[in-house]
Structures are given as C-alpha cells and as structure tokens.
Automatic annotation (TrEMBL):
Domain Ig-like, chain residue ranges per copy: 240-312, 331-419
Keywords: Disulfide bond, Glycoprotein, Immunoglobulin domain, Signal
Matches recorded under InterPro entries: Ig-like_dom, Ig-like_dom_sf, Ig-like_fold, Ig_sub, Ig_sub2, IgSF_CEA-related
Name of the protein described by the UniProt record: Ig-like domain-containing protein
Coiled coil: none
C-alpha cells in the first residue's frame, strides 16, 4: 500500500494524522506471487477535524418583537453545519439548519423570562457533532410599580414603606426622601404578581421635620436594561394635632355633626379656620369645651370646606392637620335645560323631525344619578342628558327627570310637557250667515295651531288684525266676502278661510 510515496508491504495501513492535511490518495496494489500479475485500487482520504470548542456569542438581552443575532463558533474542518433551537432540542423543533453560523432570532411577543438558545455543530464530513447553549433574558419591566405605607406621619415617629414592581430578571430599588438617598432592604411578601412571588423593597424612615407635605420617591431599576420607573407618594407630615370627626356617621345635611381638635394640650388656646380664614360662629355653628369641639346643628351644604384647629401652647403656635368636610346633600334646585343652557318651562315646543337634547341637573353631593320617564311611566334614559326626535303627536306628552342621591336616598322630580309645533289647519270663521245693512255683526276666526296663531282679516279692502271682527255694512250689496288668514307665531306658516255673506236691507225695495 502506498501513501505519499511511502510503500508498506502489507494489506493493512494504519494512518494517524496529527495535523490537518489536504486530501490524500491511498493506493493498494495486489500481486499474485505465482503468476506475477498485479491489480490496484485507489481511495481518496479526506481529513476531518472537530467540531470542538463550540461557543455562542449572544446579545445581553432580548426584546419582544425585535430580531437579535446569535453567532455560533467552533473548530471544524473541512466545514460544519449549524442547527439552532429556542429551548431544549429534545422538545423543540429546529429554528434553522445551515452552514451559516448566525441566527437572526425574532423574539415572540409572548416570550418572557429566561430563554435557552442551543446550537448544534455537526461536521459535514465526519457527521460528528457537539452542542452548546446560552441562556438569555427577555427582560420585562419595571411595570405595575406601586407603594404601600401610611400617607400621614407624625413628627418623631418611624414609618415603614414598601415598594413593589414587576421586573424580569429583577430590579434594584432606590429611595429619595428629604433630598436624601436610601437603598432599603429586600423582603419576600405573600403576594403573587402574574403567578410569581413578589419581592418588595422596605424602607423605614424617621420623621424629623414638620412639613405639610413630603414626597417619598421609589425608583425601580431593571438590573439588566437599566430601565427606570419612579413612583411618588405624598406624605402628610404634621405634629400630633389634627381635626377629626367625633363619629363615623357621614356628614348629611340637616343633621347634627361635630369635629374635634385632637392632640392639643389641655391648657392650650385653640382657634379654628375654615378654608384658611378665621371661622365665625353662628346660630348653627358652635364651639364648646374650650374650643375643642366644633358642632354644626344643623349641618348645611354651605358648611363644606377645609377645617383646621390651631393650638397656642405656651406661645408655640401649632397648626393641626386640616380636615376636609364634604357635606352630603341634595338633590336641590333640580331643573331641565334644552340645547345646553335654555331652561325649559312647563311646556316645551319642538318641531317634528328635529332632534332635541334635554339636560337634567341638580345641586347634589355626591353626584346624583338621573333617570328619565315618559308619560306612560316607561324609562327612556339613565343619564343626565336625554335626546330624542319627535315625529308625530304620539311623541307628545310629559317627560320627567328624577334626580337621586345614592347616599341619602333622597330624590326630586322635574318635568316638562312636550308639544309639537304645528298648524295652522282647519281655519274656521264663525258668525251669522247674513248681515243687515246698518246692523253690527261679530265674526270670529279660529284654527288648530300650536303654539298659537295670529289672525288677519281682509274686509272692504282693508286689513284688520285679531281673531274677532265687528262688521257693519253701510249700504246694500247683494253679498259680502270675508277672508281670514291664520299665521303660526313660530313657523310663520299661513292658512286661510273665506265666508260669503248675504246682505239684507229693510229699506231697499229692489227697484
């Protein structure tokens, strides 16, 4: 057997290539020792190496809906083929198979968490293969960030606050309070977010200064992307003095209601303000118990406002935490308007076929609900506004709005009668069929008309206004004709009627 000019007289040739070499030709020659005849055959040997040292160059993270490039590297001769998988190859279908070592992966919108990407490298000659993988995060968030903790704090107390955010893989938290930066402590809380345990960051602050309001900011930072989301909580910080209602009974108008200045020293001088101005007492607003108790009897809607007690303790003026009193009242002054601001009366005139929008309003706290009814008692609307387009007299009738306070259960009603503008029609002249010369006769003109008509007469070539006319014929004629024209005061439409009268004269002989 001959290889590279070296001949070995054996039917077996053991070959070891220690380095990559080009393809070689191995020739085997067989010779019959008796006859001396020979025969030969050749085989081309291709040298393969690898694959080994396989690795994947991957992006730092993936983004949903965006293509990312992965590069698989390996020592391989003469060439290798690369098969990519998103997930375990045993349970996943290959994404691609080619001699290109790059994967351009489009991250699905639904993909979250940690994604394992596998690259299978196979020598195209030897069919030997190796497998390597890399885990890449599809980061999410921070989203759904919120804080938990008291929104009011007293000077000298310690308060605990929690900051939560949904983050993949995780978030770091930074707190900002009174121009200082804090890191807080991580804690596992018994809450699930998207079926995963939720971790919170805890901050305990010492309230040292008295301000009306302080901002506490929690900043969640994704450890991978650096994306940051802030959440701010406004903390009402005050001394221990505050205004509180004496009972849990809601402040309903026309009932008795009391506020108390809590926390002031027993010998302190206390005075009250309403909406920042000194409170004036009256027949219905009283102070008692060294001005500690403020009573409204009865409570009125006008008593709504922000109340604050201020204590003077040995010359130290301490404003208490204000209390906003929202008096529950109404409905009052319920009314219906049309076309936005036109107040309706007992009757509302509409043109057939035109759309009209009615608005019901009432003074009410909390906001009233509104229901509309037609003349049959059927509900025709459940909002403050109600629109409809009347077409015929069948749509005429009373519509009623009911304003309802959901807390007090009180209600009021207001209504208007819908009438369609129409006419004139059926114009009629009533009076005698004949007149006598020199004798006064009265005639009246009428018509079916909504809202009403004005009337004009044509008599003797003269125009007379009014629904009635007195007629006195001074000389004999055989007949006299009356013409009445009715005109609708809204639309201006006209309709008329005429009447021919016989004229008699007792002094006329007919000569």
């Amino acid at each position: 057997m001959t290889l590279d000019g070296l001949t070995k007289y054996s039917n077996q040739y053991d070959i070891i290539f220690k380095t990559i070499v080009p393809s070689k030709v191995l020739t085997c020659e067989a010779k019959n020792p008796s006859t001396g005849e020979t025969g030969s055959i050749s085989k081309t040997l291709h040298v393969a190496d690898g694959p080994y040292n396989a690795s994947i160059q991957a992006p730092k993270w993936l983004v949903n809906g965006v293509k990312s490039t992965f590069v698989c590297s390996a020592v391989c001769y003469p060439s290798c083929e690369y098969t990519w998988y998103a997930g375990n190859p045993a349970t996943s279908s290959p994404l691609s198979t080619s001699t290109s070592n790059e994967l351009h992966y489009l991250t699905p919108q639904y993909q979250t968490g940690l994604l394992d990407v596998f690259c299978e490298v196979q020598n195209t000659l030897s069919q030997l293969f190796v497998e390597t993988s890399v885990a890449v995060w599809v980061p999410q968030g921070p989203t759904d960030i919120y804080m938990s903790g008291p929104t009011s704090a007293m000077v000298g107390t310690k308060e605990t606050y929690y900051c939560f955010a949904y983050c993949t893989p995780s978030c770091n938290y930074i707190w900002y309070y009174q121009n200082k930066t804090f890191t807080g402590d991580e804690a596992n809380v018994p809450i699930l977010n998207r079926n995963k345990p939720l971790f919170a960051n805890i901050l305990v602050i010492q309230v040292e200064q008295s301000h009306k309001k302080e901002s506490l900011v929690c900043s969640a930072v994704n450890v991978l992307t650096g994306k940051t989301v802030n959440h701010t909580m406004i903390i009402n910080v005050a001394d221990p003095i505050c205004v509180l209602p004496i009972t849990a009974t809601p402040p309903i108008a026309d009932s008795s209601y009391s506020l108390k200045c809590v926390g002031a020293q027993q010998n302190a001088y206390i005075y009250w303000t309403k909406n920042g101005k000194t409170l004036s007492t009256s027949d219905t607003v009283h102070l008692a118990d060294n001005n500690v108790i403020l009573t409204f009897d009865p409570l009125r809607a006008s008593d709504t406002g922000v109340y604050q007690c201020i204590a003077n303790e040995q010359g130290n003026v301490i404003p208490g935490v204000p209390y906003e009193l929202k008096v529950i009242y109404g409905p009052l002054n319920t009314e219906i308007t049309v076309s936005g601001d036109k107040l309706v009366g007992q009757t509302t005139l509409l043109l057939p076929g035109t759309s009209a929008t009615f608005y019901c309003s009432a003074k009410c706290y909390p906001a009233c609900t509104y229901v509309w009814y037609n003349f049959n008692g059927d509900i025709i609307g459940k909002n403050a506004s109600f629109s409809f387009t009347p077409a015929s007299v069948a749509d005429e009738g009373l519509i009623t709005c009911v304003a309802f306070n959901p807390i007090t259960q009180n209600y009021t009603t207001v209504n208007t009668n819908i009438e369609l503008i129409g006419g004139p029609k059926n114009v009629t002249i009533t009076g005698p069929n004949s007149v006598q010369v020199g004798v006064k006769a009265t005639f009246e003109c009428s018509a079916v008309c909504t809202p009403s008509c004005v009337y004009t007469w044509e008599v003797y070539g003269r125009t007379i206004h009014g629904s009635k006319v007195d007629l006195t014929i001074s000389k004999y004629v055989a007949t006299e004709t009356l013409l009445c024209i009715a005109q609708n005061i809204i639309t201006g439409k006209l309709a008329g009627a005429n009447e021919t009268l016989d004229v008699t004269d007792t002094n006329w002989c007919g000569c």
